[in-house]
Amino acid sequence: MPVADRVQLDAVRTRREALYEAVVGLEDALATPIGDGAKWRLRVAMAIDHATIRIEEHAKQTEARGGFLDQVMQEEPRLQRRVNQLKVDHERLEKEVDALRLSVSMVDDDRIPDKAVGIRNQAIELLGQLTRHRQRGADLIYEAYHVDIGEG
Measured between alpha carbons, how far is 44 from 87 in angstroms, rounded to an integer? Predict the structure, then answer.
């Protein structure tokens, strides 16, 4: 594998790890007991903000001109459908995380206990989408380069 590919794959691996950390952080925030609604909402909102940043950075860097997806398309045009699916995922993930942020911000602190189940369910759907996206990305990398991105 050329050095440029290794550098690009290392960058992808780093972005995947950052995205995974955001997923874990959001899941942790959601799993905490509600107790004080204001405190719970703040913790969840901060985790959503972190996830938003990671999703946006991931999409921007992956889709950048000359970035990873461009490289895959140059080297393996047969993978266009998979590349396009990842781009669609990015758009969907950005919309879903924005919708989750809005849901959390629209609930009064004293109503958090009543609304937490709906917020958690909405977030669980987002977490599932993030996991599926990471899986599709790993599959694309393996298909293009015969490399397991999870390997160090």
Answer: 26
State pTM to two decimals: 0.89
CATH fold for domain 3-145: Four Helix Bundle (Hemerythrin (Met), subunit A) (1.20.120)
Q: How far apart are CA 17 and CA 65, in angstroms?
A: 22
129 in Cβ contact with 86 (< 8 Å): no
Tokens of 5: 């590919």
Two tokens, residue 129: 């989408």
Find out whether 6 and 46 touch, Cβ atoms under 8 Å: no
Q: Where are the domains of the chain?
A: 3-145
Distances in Å between the Cα of 5 and the Cα atoms of 8, 12, 83, 106, 141 are: 5, 10, 17, 45, 11
List per-block mean pLDDT (blocks of 10 residues) for the chain, which spans 152 residues.
69 92 96 90 96 96 93 94 97 97 92 92 96 94 84 47
